[in-house]
Amino acid sequence: MTRDQPYGLVSHAVIVCEGEKIAWVGSENDMPAVFSDHDATDLDGRLVTPALIDCHTHLVSGGNRAREFEMRLQGASYEEISRAGGGIVSTVKATRAASEDELVANALPRVDALISEGATTVEIKSGYGLDVETELRMLRAARRIARERPLRVLTTFLGAHALPPDYRDHDTYIDEVCIAALHAAHAEGLVDAVDGFCEGIAFQPSHIAKVFDVAKDLGLPVKLHAEQLSDLGGAKLAASYGAMSADHIEYLGEDGVEAMAQAGTVAVILPGAFYTLRETQVPPIDALREHNVPMALATDANPGSSPLTSLLLTMNMACTLFRMTPEEALAGVTKHAARALRIADCGTIQAGKRADLAVWNVDHPAELAYRIGFNPLEQRIFGGHS
Questions:
Q1: In the 3-class helix/strand/coil scheme, how is 46-114 assigned residue by residue?
Q2: What is the DSSP letter of 209?
Q3: Region for 372 from its dihedrals, namely left if φ exceeds 0, alpha if ψ lies in -120 to 50, beta otherwise
Q4: CA distance 212 to 244
Q5: Which of 105, 178, 212, 380 is deepest in the core (most CB within 10 A)?
Q6: Under DSSP, is residue 194 helix (H, G, I), strand (E, B) or coil?
Q7: Helix, strand, or coil here: 197?
């Protein structure tokens, strides 16, 4: 890869893979002679990019919320549905009733949709159990997916997602259930990071801080659903904990952008939820650019506000709805998505990194964001294997 060309393109390129890793990459004319005896595959001039990464998903859940989709079309808001016992709480009921096997079986078709578009790494959150037993079951199911499919799965504990119907006090729920579940999940080796939903219909910054303090004590990195429906200062709070990312951020203010820039916190842009909820407040893309905050993109795949399992469509939405450039969109589902997950061995095509690659039947990288409902993937390579 080179920075001299848009998208880092290298013409007449050669990528040398040895085992699971990339040994060398560059122009064909510059390839060292030591690699000349390797078996070669001619890709006929196709575009090769890093494999795609979905850095924010809720792929493990029970049931669906198609009825709520109808309700929104009839005029009900996300908040109204939530306060009426729908929204996240309705998925909690279905998820609590599902076995681990059922959760895995429900998730695999969604996972397969992402794999079919060149994804090799996905993040999967808990957060639809809201009790110790079901939160652990969700995380176990997420870990199992990596054994069922050729895929890297990173798990995120999201116990602070919503107040369950069997609790009326947020502080009591955080103390008695959320933190207990986090300790149990960590002890079982089920958690790679900790998340929360900081919003008026979910948890206040003081509640999130309690959870993040425990995460810090356990040595776990944090991220946050922040500023999706209002500005509660969630991104600024997350940045104060050195958060991996702040996600959604439609209502993010300048102070939050500055705090993220100083902390190195990635902005995860989620156009699927914006589209599904028919929101009008767009994230501050220009301010994020001005302050050099990396922008990742993700599906936010979930049964309620973003039933989306296409990173290609996510790229198109980011460009069409938020005016991100196709180059920014591609970086958002590769190198910046890797940064949002703090994984350094993928996301770019460089010697020493994993040979996680996607081969595309396109003439130009912009086609990946330009087309709607079309999948030009020719080949997906995961750890050197197609």
A1: CEEEECEEECCCCCCCCCCCHHHHHHHHCCCCHHHHHHCCCCHHHHHHHHHCCCHHHHHHHHHHHHHHH
A2: H
A3: beta
A4: 12
A5: 178
A6: strand
A7: strand
The rounded distance, in Å, linking the Cα atoms of 278 and 125 is: 24
- AA letter at 131: D
8-state DSSP, 337: H
Worst-scoring range by mean pLDDT, 70-74, 148-152, 354-358, 366-370?
Answer: 70-74
Q: Compute CA 111 distance to the chain's CA centroid, rounded to the nearest angstrom.
A: 13
Beta bridge partners of 385: 382
Q: Are 79 and 229 in contact (CB under 8 A)?
A: yes
DSSP state, residue 364: S
d(CA 62, CA 141): 12
Tokens of 136: 């652990």
Distance CA 343, CA 34 (A): 30
Q: Tell me the pLDDT tens digit for each residue of 20-34.
A: 999 999 999 999 999
- State residue 4's pLDDT score: 59
pLDDT of 271 over the 80 cut: yes
DSSP three-state, residue 136: helix
Nearest to 269 by CA among 206, 331, 203: 331
Q: What is the DSSP string of 249-283?
A: -TT--HHHHHHHHHHTPEEEE-HHHHHHTT-----
| Cα 47 to Cα 15: distance, rounded to the nearest angstrom | 12
